[in-house]
Every structure is written in C-alpha cells, then in structure tokens.
Design goal:
heterodimer; A: about 260 residues; alpha/beta; Rossmann fold; 6 strands; B: about 475 residues; 8-stranded parallel β-sheet; two-stranded antiparallel ribbon; 22 helices; about 45% helix; globular
Chain lengths: ~260, ~475
C-alpha cells in the first residue's frame, strides 16, 4: 500500500459510500496499484467472456419446455457466427432460411396472444442464468393468455422478435435478451415488448425492462413490470412511446 | 464526374466524389455495414491514388451531400473562405498531404488556412495519411480556447471530469468530482451525463457544481450534458449555465435525429454567450467560448441519416469531418470525438478505433477546432485497456487538447470504458505536460488545501 493510500484511507471510505464508481483508487507513482489493475481486468474479462459465449440452445429449450409445458422451437438469425453478429446488426435482426422453414411448419391454426422469444443478444450468460427463472415467475400472471410456442434464438437482436411474432400470428412479442455487458454486469437480461410485431417496427414502438440480474431487478419485480406492460399493451393496442403517455401504464397498476 | 485509376490490368472506376472518398477510406466495419467500403485492398489503394491526383478545387464544385437537400452542406459551401484557400488553391489532395507535412506548413500558416478548407478536403487528405502523418501534422496545430481556464496551450493537457452516476445522485456525482479534483482532473470542464434527461435534475446539478466552484474558488467550467433544449430550459429558469452541450453529426438528417438544427444551435450559442460567465484567463483575455460538442464516426449511419448524392451512402469518416464543419460555426470551447462508444459495427477493434481517433483529432484541428477525444471502447468491441493506452499516448504526442477523466476508467452510468484520472496523470508525466495554467495555479494555492481538508466530509460540501 502506498503512503498516499494510507493517508487518505478515511476519505476513500467516505467517497466509496456515496457512489458505486471506482473512486478513491490508490496510486503508485501516478499509476494504478496492482490489485486495482487486476480488479478491472477481471471485470473486463468476465464481460468479454459473456459477449463471446455461445448459447446452449438445446439445454435452454429443454428447460423452457419443462416450464411452459409446450414445445420450444430453436431458431438462428442470419448472422452465421459471433464475428458476423457483432459487425452486421442487420443480419442479427432476421432469421436464416432454415429457421423460417421451421416456423412455417410449426405455424398453428389459431392466433396467439403472446410470443415469448428468448435470444442470446450480447450476453448468452444473461439468458442462461435468468430467462427460465423469469418465465417461471411470469407464467402464473398470464393464465388467461394464449401463448405461442416459446422460441430460442441464437445470434439474435431485439428486432428478430418482429419476424418471429408475425410468423407465429402473435398479438404481442416479448423478447428476452442478453444486454451489452457492463464492467460490473456481465449477465444483465432485458425484455422488449412489441405490439403487433412485424418486420420494420422501430425501437420507439417497443417498451423495455432492463437490468434483470442478481444485483439489479429481481425476477418477481421484472415479472410484475412485464405483466403491467403486457396488460396495458393489450388494452391500448399499442406499445412504445405512446404507451408511456401519462396514465396508460400507471392506470393498469390500479386495476 | 467519374474518377479512375489502373493497377496492372485492372481499371478501377469510381462514379463520383462520394464513392471515391468511401472507397479510399482505410477499412472500418461501419463502411462495410453501409455497403460503401472498397471490395478489395487493391481497390482501396486505387481509390487513394485517384484521390491523391484530385485538385482541391474540385471539392468546391462537387458535393457529397446535395446542397439543396442539406443545411450542413449549405453552411460549408456558403462560409468557405476563398482568400484563405488561395495559398493551396492549385494543389491536389496528394500535394496537400506533402505540404501539411513540410516545414513550409508552420503553425501560423496552418491556422490561417483553416477557414479555406472544407471538411471534405480534410477528410480526403486524412485518408492518404498514415498514423504518424496524422500525428505529425496535428501536432503543429494549436487551437486555444478560454472560459475560466485556457485549454489547448503548448505543454498543457486538460481533462473533462466525467462524474456520472446511475441515478443522477447529486452526492454520488459530488463524490466523483472530489475524487477527480484531488487527482488534478477537471480543467477542461466538469461535465455530467444524465441517466434521465430532466430540467430539474439539470438545474440542481448546475447549482451544486457552481456552489462548489465558488466556495473553493476553482477555475473550472461545468456542464450538464442533457439535451440542448433541456439545458436551455434550465438556463431560462436562471440556472448557472457555463458551457452548453450538444451531440452533433455531419448531415442535416442526423442532426434532426438528435433533435437539433443549425438555427437551434445558433439560438443556444447566443443565449449562452449573453450570460457572460467566462472569467479573465491567465493571459488577460476573457473567456467567451461556451459551446461543447460531441461527435463520433458512425453516428449518422446509426440514425440511418448517412445518405448523400444519388441517395447513396457517404463513408462515416467524411461525415464525421462534416460534423466539424457544423462545430466550427459556433467557436466551441471543447469538441470531442467519442471514438469507441458507438460499437464494433462501426469501429470493430482496437486498430480501427486507434486510427479513427487520430483521424478525428487531425481533421478537427486542421479545421480549427479545439479537439479532445474520449478514448474509449465498449465490451462488445475487440479492444481492451492496452488499445486505449496506445491511443491515449498517440493522442498526447499529437497534442490533443483534452481527454476524459472517469473514476477508474469505468463509466457506471453509460456502461463503457473511457480514460481514468490516473491515465491523465500518466500522460502528463511521460510527456511532461501540465494542466491549464489557471488550474495549475489553483492546485498549489490555499483554496485547494481547504478543499482537501473539507473533503473529508464530502456530504457537507453539498450543504454550502
């Protein structure tokens, strides 16, 4: 420990109590001390691993089938691998040919109220850790809803739910997706809800819940918020900025 | 007009200036995504040969984004200074590179040339330059601005203290400000980004920072990086607004996606200047630069506002230079390129980020702007701290006006990695450069000692 760190230890504790930022780091010369350097490298390593991790689609689909009691379809975006996915967001927003065929075959006669789409996004880790648990919390809240088969998508971005929701004739698509890892949050899950999903929807037409993880939003909190958005979406027949108008989301909370 | 260059048996033809600039751009993922990148390394260098032979005068006759469609193009064309252009008026793009690197291009001549250059000319010449060229030429150009500190002087390196907090907590923000001030950060600006773009939050934070400044006689300017209209509402409500911030881009459509246009920027500039909050600086001149702009390659593409002549895509580096064409209209205190924030679909890896940062710094300086750089990356980019150290050091050598200072390099609100207070200390030490003169003097004075003493109870600092 450097002299400077020792002399300012009291202040360091004060500052750290006020913010989660990396304040009051010590110095050796003007440089970071070894422990702080390695703490940062560990956080970055975890974030990088989460970005590059492949999704175990089979295991996740099996887990979701168990929870929902229905079938889960495995799909893949048009981005062949991670390197393509990272450089071509457009390809991550549409399905590959094989997945389109899969959806066409499985198309059910009846329309559904909700299509749950689980996509790896930028953190397969987030999806593997949290999506099944969130769906478990959510399902009892949606007893009257007709669910389309759950889909598990590899190399998918948020907008891929538009194509999937449309193919499954679902009124609403809810995409559970791994968010871009931060240094202290490699496994954060987000959910994007889109009314009348179809290709070409914009982000302004979606509502989002984010930061679902151990140190963030809990499964039950997220499920409650999701139920609120889904119910409001069905009532007002829309999602996005328009659903955030005063009264539209809060009114549902009172019902 | 078409352009062509033959290599071996292949004749490469480029349909117009827009295509020539795009194909001549060193490889980056955003241009591939936009479908304008060269199809091969040989095509790229063929475009560079053709570009090198292009007379600079041609840029005054062919636009990459049509004049009638775009107010940024109109601004660039209508404010071009023919007299300043005259000394290089007979050169080609390749000859301009030679001249910039020659001993003939003195700091004084480079400064005089700025209004005679268009962003497209500057982008074009940068495409022919290697990293060392971008550094050697930029290093000769000094752009000095003043508010309460003087930023950009030779032998100086300033920092923007960036004390962001996930819920905009004033106490949390104050803790990061204190940490930074104690590590010699904040002499360019203390600038907070908001999690929630609200007038009340903006006003509260401006008052908090202004009280801190006055209590400890800190030569600093503060800024809350809310949307420009939010800051103007705070200003109209009597908030102590020092610098006015806005993100800008190189097309009218991209600026529209940011919710601004040239008229709004001019209105803000006027309102900010009317407050006359700048101080007399070290050289006796009163600070009057009040705008703070941020830019970044790829922002137009991400807003689907990157189209030019014939409705076809313009490369992201040319559009970035056009954003500087917007910035220079308003004599900004600070401009910085947030180079690696946008993600790997625009700048894929450390190599692309490093080059882009140096291009932006060079282009901005050549156009007469006080360039800083947010040396940064996201976790889905192929980059790490080593890449940031490389760019940081290269920019320091190139004479960058300022860099960011974020606690531990980890922005916990925007979720990306920038440079830390420690990084700035490193750069100042290895390059033997100092903070702004006003800040340096304050640092060794009685007020700083008082701050250090009272900082042991940071919560009391807010109840002044």
């Amino acid at each position: 420990m450097s002299e400077l760190t020792r002399s300012t230890q009291g202040l360091a504790a004060e500052l750290r109590a006020l913010t989660p930022a990396r304040v009051a780091l010590g110095r050796t010369g003007v440089s970071l001390e070894t422990r702080d350097l390695l703490d940062f490298q560990r956080a970055h390593a975890q974030a990088r691993d989460a970005v590059l991790a492949g999704l175990d689609g089979a295991a996740l689909a099996a887990a979701l089938e168990k929870i929902t009691g229905g079938s889960a379809l495995r799909l893949h975006s048009a981005a062949a691998d991670r390197a393509v996915y990272l450089q071509r967001p457009d390809l991550g927003r549409v399905l590959d040919a094989a997945s389109r065929a899969t959806l066409a075959q499985s198309k059910r006669a009846a329309a559904s109220d909700l299509a749950l789409v689980v996509a790896d996004g930028l953190s397969a880790l987030a999806v593997e850790r949290h999506s099944a648990a969130l769906v478990t919390e959510l399902l009892p809240r949606l007893e009257s809803w007709r669910l389309a088969p759950v889909t598990v998508v590899e190399q998918g971005r948020v907008a891929i739910g538009d194509e999937i929701g449309a193919a499954l004739c679902a009124q609403i698509a809810a995409v559970l997706i791994g968010e871009r890892p931060g240094l202290s949050s490699p496994d954060s899950l987000g959910v994007y809800v889109t009314w009348a999903p179809k290709r070409g929807r914009t982000d302004a037409e979606r509502n989002c819940i984010s930061n679902i993880r151990a140190a963030g939003l809990s499964y039950s909190q997220a499920a409650a918020q999701l139920e609120l958005i889904l119910t409001a979406a069905r009532r007002w027949q829309l999602t996005g900025v328009a659903l955030q108008k005063p009264g539209r989301l809060t009114e549902e909370a009172k019902l | 007009m078409t352009f062509a260059h033959t290599i071996g048996l292949t004749r490469y033809v480029f349909a117009d200036l827009r295509e020539l600039l795009a194909k001549g751009t060193p490889l980056r993922s955003g241009d591939v995504l936009a479908g304008v990148a060269a199809a091969s390394a040989e095509e790229r260098v063929a475009a560079q040969f053709a570009l090198a032979d292009l007379p600079l005068e041609h840029f005054l006759n062919e636009t990459v984004v049509p004049y009638e469609d775009d107010e940024v193009t109109r601004l660039i064309a209508d404010t071009h200074d023919a007299e300043a252009f005259a000394p290089i008026g007979s050169l080609t793009v390749g000859e301009l590179r030679n001249w910039l690197l020659s001993d003939d291009a003195t700091p004084e001549r480079l400064a005089a040339l700025a209004p005679g250059l268009t962003p497209e000319m500057v982008a074009a010449v940068s495409k022919l330059m290697r990293v060392q060229d971008l550094i050697a030429a930029a290093r000769k150009i000094r752009v000095v601005t003043r508010f309460r500190t003087t930023v950009g002087l030779p032998g100086r390196l300033s920092t923007r203290l960036q004390p962001n907090h996930p819920t905009d907590s004033p106490l949390g923000i104050a803790a990061s400000i204190l940490d930074g001030l104690m590590l010699d950060s904040g002499d360019a600006v203390v600038g907070v980004n908001l999690a929630g773009d609200r007038v009340e939050t903006t006003t509260r934070l401006l008052h908090m920072m202004d009280a801190l400044r006055r209590r400890f006689a800190i030569p600093m300017q503060s800024c809350v990086l809310a949307h420009l209209t939010t800051q103007m509402a705070a200003l109209a409500g009597g908030a102590p607004v020092d610098l006015l911030f806005q993100s800008i881009a190189g097309t009218e459509a991209a600026n529209r996606s940011f919710g601004v246009n040239l008229a709004l920027l001019a209105e803000a500039h006027q309102a900010g200047r009317a407050l006359r909050r700048g101080d007399v600086c070290a050289d006796g001149r009163t600070g009057a630069n009040i705008m703070y702009f941020e830019t970044g390659q790829g922002s137009a593409l991400s807003a689907n506002a990157h189209h030019g002549a014939g409705g076809l895509a313009v490369d992201q580096q040319t559009l970035e230079a056009r954003a500087y064409g917007v910035a220079r209209r308003f004599d900004p205190m600070l401009v910085n390129t947030v180079v690696g924030f946008i993600g790997p679909e625009y700048l894929y890896d450390g190599k692309q980020i490093v080059r882009a940062g140096l291009e932006d710094h060079f282009c901005g300086k050549l156009l007469g702007l006080p360039m800083g750089c947010d040396v940064c990356y996201t976790n889905h980019a192929e980059a790490d701290q080593d890449d940031m150290d490389t760019l940081l050091t290269l920019l320091g050598v190139a004479g960058v006006n300022y860099i960011m200072g974020v606690p531990g390099a980890d922005d916990i609100m925007l979720n990306y990695q920038s440079t830390s207070f420690h990084d700035a200390l490193y750069l100042r030490r290895v390059l033997d450069v100092k903070p702004a003169p006003e800040f340096e003097a304050w640092r060794s004075g009685e007020s700083f000692a008082r701050l250090m003493a009272e900082a042991r109870h940071p919560e009391r600092l807010l109840t002044a």
